[in-house]
Every structure is written in C-alpha cells, then in structure tokens.
Amino acid sequence: MNYSTIKKTAVAASLVAALGFAEHAQAQTPTVFGGRSQYRTWSIGVQGGITTPNTLIGGNNAFGQQVGYFQNKVGEYYGLTVRKQFSHLFGLELEANRGRIKTYNHDLSGPAIESGSAGARSAETEVNWAGSLNGVFQLGTIDFMRRENAVNFYAKVGLGVMAFNPVQYANNDFTGGEVYNNKGSWGSEIFGDRTATGDRDFRLGMYVPVGVGAKFKLSEVVALNLGYTMNFTDEAILYGPNRHGDRKQRFSNVYGGLEFTLGSRDKENLTFTNPVATMYDELKDPSLRNEVEALKQRVSTLEGTVDQLSKDSDGDGVSDKFDKCPNTPAGTPVDGSGCPIKFPEPVAQNNATQGEYYSPIQFEFDSSVLKTESYSTLDKLAKELRDNNASVNLDGYASAEGTEAYNLNLSNDRANAVKQYLVNAGVSASSVTATGYGEDNPIASNATEEGRIQNRRVEIKVK
After folding, report:
1. CA–CA dist 211, 215 (Å, integer)
2. 347 shares a domain with 455
3. Which of 97-106, 159-168, 287-296, 394-403 is least confident?
4. 341 and 253 share one domain
5. Are 256 and 339 found together in one domain?
6. For the ranges 78-82, 233-237, 400-404, 447-451, the one whose mean pLDDT is highest
7. pLDDT digits over 167-219, tens only?
8. How many structural domains compose the chain?
9. In a domain, 304, yes or no
10. Ramachandran angles phi, psi of 158, nearest 5°
C-alpha cells in the first residue's frame, strides 16, 4: 500500500469516527447524567516541546546517505489547542504549531546532495505554521482515594496543513555555509528536475498527526498535558532535495503544556468524567433514597386505584372478590368485608354541617395499618376539609382482645394513622384531632368475630 492510499484511508477513518462519535454523543448521552449541559466541554491549551526527524515506528528520513551514520538533532516546537468535548469518550480539537526540525549526517557519510564543490551535511526545516483538526479519543480515567478522576489517557488522529522551508548546510552546526535555501521562490514546484519558480517563502504540504498522551488534573480548571505525536507528511523534500527520490518524510514531537477548561466551576469537566463512578455516587445520594420512598407511596395509591377498578356489583365500595355480603342495598354502610354495620345511634349526625356521612375506617386484628379500600373515603374527606376549611375528630377503638392498656395504645395508633394520611393529603394538622378510646363504646358484641371486626375502627366526626 503506497503512502497516498494510507493517507486517504487515515483521513476517511478519522472523519467517519468524528462524525460517528459526535452523533453517538448527541443521541446516546445517558439521561441519568443530565446531558452535556451539566458539564464544561470547551478548553484551550498551550504547549511546547521538541521535534526529532524520526518516529517510534521507524524513520524514513531521506537526507542521510548512509543510514548507519544518521544523527538526530532536536528542534523547538510550540503551539495552541482549542477542543470541544462531545462525550466522555470523544472530542474534536483544533491544533496550531510552529517551530523547527533539525537533522545532520556524520562526516563520513558524505554529502546528501552535490552543489558545485560543496556538500550538504545538515538540514534545518523551519515550520512557519502547522494546523490540524484532530479527533481525540478518551481511553480511560483513573481515580484515587477521594474517588475524584485525576488522570486521563487519550489518543488522537487528524489531518493538517503545514507551511515549511528547509535549509541545507555544508557543516553540522546550522550556522553558515548554506548549500540549499528556496525561501522566496516556492510556488510552482516541478519534482522531476527539482526546479522552482515562485515568490512564496514557504511550501505548503499535508500531514497526518497520530499521537497519544496523558492529562493530569491539577485543579477544576487546569490540567497538565503530556504527549507524543508522529507526523506523517506528504512531502519528499521536508528536509530539502535528497538522493532517495519521492519517499515521504516523517517527524515526531514530544510536548508538555497546560490545558484550561472554560465555563462555570460549578460544572464538572466532561473530559475527566467517569460514568460508572457518577452512577455509583448518585445511587448513594440520600435524595435518591427519598425519591424511592415517595415512589413507594405512589405505588400504594396505585394499588388502591386498581382495587377500585375491580368489579363491584352491589355498589357498596367493596369488590366482589372480597364482598362477604353480596347484593347489599344501595346506600347501606358496610364494613371492610362488605357487610352492613349496625350503629347505636343515627349515623347521619357525624357531619351535620355538610350533610355528608363517612363510614368508619376498619382495621385488621392487632394492626394500625390502613387498608387500601379506605383510601377513597379518606381522599373524599380530605377534599371536604380543604375546600371548607373544616376540622374533624378521629375517634379510635379496638376490640376486646388483649389488655385494656394495650388496646388503648392500639386505638390511639389507629386514629393517628388516619390523621397522618389526611395531613399527607394536604389537610392542616391543627384541624385534625385524633383520640384513642381503647375498648370503649363497642358497636357490636366482642363475643363473636363478626362483632370484633366492627369494633376495630376509627370513627370520623366532621365539625
């Protein structure tokens, strides 16, 4: 595969990855994290470092006549970055650099190109500017004892354009004896005979940067950025004319710098976000547990609604599945089993003001837990109390099983259970009086189970 094919493949892959990850980030950002709006996603950076004419995967520097005698030389390289983070996995970065790339040969290697009687033993390439658009892929983050992400690893690939001018020297110290310098004449290069007719100071060429790096979080705003980039150019004369024809040249740069995250400090930096850790912390949040408890209450209300939707042939408020006395005449007060309740006095006196009657709230044996079939009655009562700014007395009772002291406490708990439901429904606590009377005032005989069922109650008296 030739270099042109490699370059096109890398460019296509980087663009597809950029578009794919950006779309994925927009469509797939988990709602549990609130989306990108709750994070800081823009950053700028400054960086500086050195260049070498080789790369880790091998150099293709065509300047040297004998590779064994080829010598590296470092040059300065510095620049700026602007990055937009689309998710915790991917971002797009604009990078701009300038600097120098240097190389020279051992004396025994001989000149790289003949220029009259002088030969070239070193070259210095001035990079006036280099700009690229990079896709930055977050490889992972590391957190420590405080569960705060502090180290981030990344890889990047992109496509760029650079303006450069190589100068070749007869010696190895880059100070004099120029044997090649095309500055001021770039613009119409003919590669066959290496002639040039133009007026530009720098030649334009394309390159593909591929690199890795690590960021160290110094604060909520500042991060230390360290990295290494291999730059694959589309140039055979990056270091000037040479004896190896059209071989494409490479160079690499090692850099360090500071990255500054833009935006409010109240928001987390998306670059250092770890979704697993975020989810773990949210699950420990007390407010989330409170929401779970509230959800349980809603489920209880839903169960009552489902019960109400059950078939009720005689219209007494008790579904046929639990109705022990079917075909009860309409309007007859019934207990939790659907059987008529016998009252020692006219029941319509419970609410003389509003002309409304409320059946007593029934309870299971030795229990102060409200039954779901009571919710509809209590919801109706709560609405009346709110709408009319009325007050109510709740009288709690118990059947005769157990001691009188125990039953007195039990009846008081039953009255307070009804009061708590009304308060939760928006009724003022000061307008509800709850009192327990134990085994007093039975409305049926405690000698039978049917009678004891009726005595386990809370009577409602609206004032």
Report:
1. 13
2. yes
3. 287-296
4. no
5. no
6. 78-82
7. 888 777 676 678 888 898 897 654 444 444 678 999 999 999 999 999 999 98
8. 2
9. no
10. -160, -165
Examine residue 341 and state whether it is found in any structural domain, yes or no. Answer: yes
Distance, in Å, from the CA atom of 99 to the CA atom of 77, rounded to the nearest integer, reads 4
List the domain range (segments joined by +) for residue 323: 311-462
Task: Enter the tokens of residue 455.
Answer: 């005595």
According to the model, what pLDDT value does residue 356 have?
Answer: 60
298 in a domain, yes or no? no
Closest CA to 254 of 452, 23, 8, 56: 56
Which CATH number do you get for residue 446?
Answer: 3.30.1330.60
Are the C-beta atoms of residues 135 and 159 closer than 8 Å to each other?
A: no
Same-domain check for residues 263 and 326: no
Cα 13 from Cα 10, distance rounded (Å)? 5
CA 249 to chain centroid, in Å, comes to: 42
Phi-psi region of 426 (alpha: psi -120 to 50; beta: other; left: phi over 0): left
Radius of gyration for the alpha carbons in the chain, expressed in angstroms and rounded: 42
User: What pLDDT is stored for residue 206 in this prediction?
Assistant: 95
Checking if the pLDDT of 144 tops 90, the result is no
Residue 453 lies in a domain: yes
Tokens (6 digits) for 341 = 């309740």
User: Domain holding 88: CATH number?
Assistant: 2.40.160.20
Question: Which range, 159-163, 193-197, 276-280, 369-373, has the best average confidence (pLDDT)?
Answer: 159-163
pLDDT digits (tens, 9 = 90+) for 245-264: 677 889 999 999 999 999 88
CA distance 4 to 12: 12
